[in-house]
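tokens incoming
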């Protein structure tokens, strides 16, 4: 009798294990389907031309659907979690010739990052999406495209010694093309507001007649007008926090105090980030209908016909994005 009981034990254990596995699999499928069903649905009638964008998306009604569709087209890259927070590695630098990436240069990189460094398809997918969003005539002097890894940022803008422009993108943004849209639009906002046409060239001991926010913005620049309208009353208080050992905590307090004046917490970190974050909201969020200072900052961009037209072009780029052949 005991021998028969001993034989039954592994059989029963096998049955129980099988039932548990079925429950787990069933639970996984259930929650997966449930989660998928809660995802936003991409509209089928998204605009396919600049005229259609202007007619159907004047106030940003179509942008969310377009971003979702573009994200689906760009695709999601899966990478192993090997990054060290706060630490950056430059992986590859490409020369830019119009829409083309040329002559990739590969600096030494840790072995664990070679998978990121040599994934040219991911690099080109990011680049292809960027040139699909921003018209060629709106990105002159873009000389270099750099892929880096790690760190806290999604992308960065850098000037060259000859007044050119370097676009630097964190390769990890290939894992989230929705955030990638925000990052690319934000960085283009830096170029738009900090390029040489927006600056006053100083020689010798000349002092900037405006605040030196990033070099010297000329009086008619977008940044100077934005600063005078929205940052002048706060600037002295903000300057008093710079360089403090607890600056991160002070920045959080500054944002909490003036939250209604900023579209994001990062926007409160400094004027040049505020205008880039607000530009991003101008492009990829519906036109605000409220009357907070943050709303007024977004509406600031609508005062410039050339920026409204560029907004339509970028939205059209998002709505109609398709990889280059």
């Amino acid at each position: 009798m005991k021998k028969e009981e001993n034989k039954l034990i592994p059989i029963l254990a096998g049955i129980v294990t099988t039932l548990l596995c079925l429950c787990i699999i069933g639970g996984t499928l259930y929650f997966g389907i449930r989660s998928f069903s809660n995802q936003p649905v991409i509209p089928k009638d998204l605009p396919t031309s600049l005229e259609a964008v202007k007619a159907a998306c004047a106030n940003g009604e179509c942008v969310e659907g377009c971003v979702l569709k573009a994200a689906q087209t760009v695709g999601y890259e899966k990478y192993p979690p090997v990054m060290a927070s706060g630490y950056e590695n430059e992986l590859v630098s490409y020369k830019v010739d119009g829409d083309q990436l040329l002559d990739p240069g590969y600096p030494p990189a840790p072995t664990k990052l070679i998978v990121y460094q040599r994934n040219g398809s991911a690099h080109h997918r990011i680049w292809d999406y960027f040139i699909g969003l921003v018209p060629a005539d709106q990105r002159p002097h873009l000389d270099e495209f750099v892929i880096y890894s790690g760190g806290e940022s999604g992308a960065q803008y850098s000037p060259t010694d000859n007044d050119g422009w370097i676009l630097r993108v964190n390769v990890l943004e290939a894992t989230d093309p929705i955030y990638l849209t925000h990052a690319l639009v934000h960085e283009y906002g830096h170029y738009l507001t900090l390029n040489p046409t927006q600056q006053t060239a100083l020689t010798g001991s000349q002092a900037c007649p405006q605040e030196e926010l990033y070099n010297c913005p000329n009086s008619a620049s977008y940044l100077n007008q934005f600063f005078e309208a929205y940052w002048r009353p706060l600037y002295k208080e903000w300057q008093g926090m710079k360089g403090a050992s607890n600056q991160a905590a002070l920045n959080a307090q500054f944002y909490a105090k003036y939250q209604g004046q900023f579209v994001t917490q990062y926007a409160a970190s400094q004027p040049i980030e505020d205008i880039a974050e607000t530009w991003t909201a101008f492009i990829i969020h519906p036109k605000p209908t409220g009357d907070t200072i943050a709303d007024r900052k977004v509406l600031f961009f609508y005062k410039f016909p050339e920026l409204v037209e560029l907004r339509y072009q970028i939205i059209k780029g998002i709505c109609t994005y398709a990889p280059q052949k």
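note: The chain has two domains: 42-76+210-325, 79-175.
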